Amino acid sequence: MNIYVGNLSSQVNEEDLTKLFSVYGNISRIKIMKDPYTGVSKGFAFVEMTGKPEEAIKQLDKKDIKGKSITVNEARSKDNKTSAGRSRTSFGSFGNRTNRY
Question: d(Cα 32, Cα 12) in Å, to the nearest integer?
Fold first, then answer.
């Protein structure tokens, strides 16, 4: 299962997340999302794991880690991603430019 971990302190690293989640099963991958230019954490990560991921979500959601209460839930698939809950075509007539003049 792919798990979203949000509201992370910029001081949290992969080792910290490994220690937290390994109690609940085998971790196959941890990806802390970072700014590509500065390398600073964006404050969220994804943990892929097997074992008891539901238990990890239940036990770790709202847990205080390095001064911040983290958010832990099942990650949504990329297919369900939209801008602020709207489809790209709902921003007016940007896509329909045939009758401009």
Answer: 9
